[in-house]
Amino acid sequence: MRNFNFNNFTDIRFGTDQIEAHLHDVLASYGQNVLLVYGGGSIKKNGLYERVMHQLPDLNVFELGGIAPNPKVTSIEAGQKMTKAHNIDVILSIGGGSVIDASKLIASAHYYDGKPWDLVLNTKIRQTLKQLPVVDILTLAATGSEMNKNSVISNPETHQKLGTSGPNSPVVSFLDPTLTYSVSKWQTAAGSIDILSHLTEQYFDQAENTDVQDGMMEGLMRTVIKWAPVALNEPDNYDARANLMWSSTMALNGLVRTGKENGWTVHGIEHELSAYYDVTHGMGLGVLTPRWMRFALNAQTEAKFARYGRNVWHLVGSDVAVAQAAIQATYDWIKALQAPTTLTALGIESNENFAVMAQSAVTLKHLDKVAYVPMTSDDVVALYQASMTTVGFE
Amino acid sequence: MRNFNFNNFTDIRFGTDQIEAHLHDVLASYGQNVLLVYGGGSIKKNGLYERVMHQLPDLNVFELGGIAPNPKVTSIEAGQKMTKAHNIDVILSIGGGSVIDASKLIASAHYYDGKPWDLVLNTKIRQTLKQLPVVDILTLAATGSEMNKNSVISNPETHQKLGTSGPNSPVVSFLDPTLTYSVSKWQTAAGSIDILSHLTEQYFDQAENTDVQDGMMEGLMRTVIKWAPVALNEPDNYDARANLMWSSTMALNGLVRTGKENGWTVHGIEHELSAYYDVTHGMGLGVLTPRWMRFALNAQTEAKFARYGRNVWHLVGSDVAVAQAAIQATYDWIKALQAPTTLTALGIESNENFAVMAQSAVTLKHLDKVAYVPMTSDDVVALYQASMTTVGFE
Question: How far is A302 from A265, CA to CA, in rounded Å?
């Protein structure tokens, strides 16, 4: 286990009716001027907007809607202008990871006079800035953004989709599982795959003897595997939505990465897909992950894949048999969620961009140096190529 | 899963050399006057005292040593006098759970003019008080006190040993596994049993569908079960000490209790042992826990005990067979740690106090109402009695 620092100052209000009990007082404790950030407007259709505004009659609420999945830097620029123009005291972010990611960067950009993209490219600048408090109401279980400092922001002009980390996580996060009852099967599946991927990215790691973290992750993986199909079949199943929501937060609030090396692989490779083709992030991960596992399974990693098979999938047998069966089980679980199983099914019909995407992933994420199993750009091209068909899995 | 609020503001510095890197600046950020609280003086023999003081040449350090295991309210009174007399800005607590427990209550008593025992008896008073910042250096993995708001304090005059919760957990906790290399086999075993007990107390619970929490706890239990024997045999094994230390913190920092009912049973019954006989807390738990499991196993709880057997002990078979085997495995693990397996072995030779102890446990902890399996005082007497011999386990 490696040395680490850990803290997480986000205050979680989990369950039903927390909005009515606490939202007003939480926001008012920071001031009168609120920037409400949200996405495509579903909150106005499903009643959440009314429910929230009903709590805030005495606050000055300014609105920034239209935050897109894979949020664009142009939205951050718009938010930056609004926070400065209206002397915003606190951001109320209602949505999934994209909306909260955007809100956290807007919270930093409020204290910066240049272009927000500077803060994405240069973390050092961002770390020196103050950050507006962000209060969020989560409506999609997936990214863990509600309890971490991270954002992923896209710049369509440069074909870049990059991570950035600010000084603070949200100050208070409202996690009401009933708000995810209306999440579509497609988004429920994508979110669940994203959660599993966050866990496998941290679980398969060069750091040894991290049983605390690996054991907690095995429990979280079993939870997602169990409850995602239930949520698909019974969208209003409270326990399914609650277990997905809380496991999503636990997977990426920093706890399970403590003492680990943290060289992620599949997310970097997937981010290129989203940047070039704007595919749903979780669905890209779902196609790539089983193929990446096949690539990563070797004599050195066999024992860890076997542990994954035994403790997560309850498989029995020799190390090599359990390891291989666990990879197949991962594929089968993703397929059973009615998720696309090939890049072709995601609408990517040609390999024309694979070489430049692979080179970008390797360069940005240092996949040839710090990954669990290092990858050259040729390896990544081969991974994209293998993801075009179901050969080997069907 | 039930509604819950969760936050934890403790900043963790885990690993080697964190004291040299950060201790001075952390303390100085709160002020110049430091109250150093410690236990029996082992830190002066093993070099830790010198190592710490070497970092603090410019701070005014006042010392309160002699905090006993099962810390006494008289120590809190002494600390209260010192913090007031010397205008203490921050408490530096070096030790295990007893020392940190005492420090947190002293931190509250600084802002109170009455007797500290008032604050134990009346949580409402304590919650309204400010609390001095507590910085700790943990030297024993067991109680989780380094990342929670709780203290357990004994009052020898009244034969009471009671829990109390303050407004804040320690602000910064230094967790250096090498500081536990010198912990004796006895204390290592007792601490490990305490960790396992914290997990079983929260795991066996009436709340249903808490897979996030139960899954994380299963991983933590496997971790303790794996590494405690290693630490006993190889006291300087870093990974053994690190996994015990971090699992200890995770078991009791509030995370795994989220969404659960939290009616603890065995701790309440053990606290009476410690109050009457001053036995080592973990060793009392080790004797009582397998007998409590036997008591609690019934048609309603069988499925949960079977889950415990499968996911923690990797047992296979029918629910009832796995459940019974898991209880035996728990006993065998405790015995293999060279811990006493009967109350007799702990020096308790007569049942003369069992009735009054049982009544006290039931009354204080409402064991007849909120426990996983409710217990009358007769049930508790029978549990104490069954703990006098190894009948049924050997």
Answer: 18
- Comparing CB atoms, the residue among A7, A239, A310 nearest residue B12 is A7
Q: How far is CA A299 from CA A304, A319, A393, in A?
A: 10, 10, 21
CA dist., res. A226 & res. A244, Å (int)? 9
**Which architecture characterizes domain A11-179 according to CATH?**
3-Layer(aba) Sandwich (3.40)
Q: How far apart are CA B345 and CA A299, in angstroms?
A: 49
Q: Give residue limits of the domains in chain B.
A: 11-179, 184-386
| Residue A357 three-state SS | helix
A223 interaction partners in chain B (CB closer than 8 Å) = 211-212, 215
Question: Between B266-277 and B377-386, two packed helices, what is the crossing angle to 10 degrees?
Answer: 70
Interface touch A217/B218, C-beta < 8 Å:
no
Tell the residue number behind the tokens 């009735």, with chain if given: B355
Asked if residue A69 has pLDDT above 90, the reply is: no
Is residue B16 less than 8 Å (CB to CB) from chain A? yes
Query: Which residues from chain B sit within 8 angstroms of residue A258, using beta carbons?
Result: 12, 14, 246
- Report which residue type is found at A218: E
Distance CA A388, CA A244 (A): 29
A169 falls in which pLDDT band (50, 70, 90)? very high
Which of A212, A214, A218 minimises the CB distance to B250? A212
Does A180 contact chain B (CB < 8 Å)?
no
Q: How far apart (Å, rounded) are the C-alpha atoms in residues B359 and B367?
A: 10
CA atoms within 13 A on the CB side of B54: 9
Q: Is B258 on the interface with A (CB under 8 A)?
A: yes
How confident is the model over A19-63, as pLDDT tens digits?
Answer: 999 999 999 999 999 999 999 888 999 999 999 999 999 999 999
Fold of A185-386: Dehydroquinate synthase-like, alpha domain (1.20.1090)
Fold of B184-386: Dehydroquinate synthase-like, alpha domain (1.20.1090)
